[in-house]
Amino acid sequence: MTEAYIVDAIRTPVGRKNGGLASVHPADLGAQVIAALIRRTGIDPAAVDDVIFGCVDTLGPQAGDIARTCWLAAGLPDTVPGVTVDRQCGSSQQAVHFGAQAVMSGTAELIVAGGVQNMNLVPIASAMQGVSPFAGSQGWVARYGEQEVSQFRSADMIAERWQISREEMEVYALSSHERALAADFSAEIVAVAGVDRDECPRETSLEKMASLKPLRDNGRITAALASQNADGASALLIASAAAVRDHGLRPRARIHHLSARGDDPVMMLTAPIPATIHALRKSGLTIDDIDLVEINEAFASVVLAWLKETGADPARVNVNGGAIALGHPLGATGTRLMTSLLYELERRGGRYGLQTMCEGGGQANVTIIERL
Question: Average of pLDDT values for 141-153?
Answer without folding.
Answer: 94
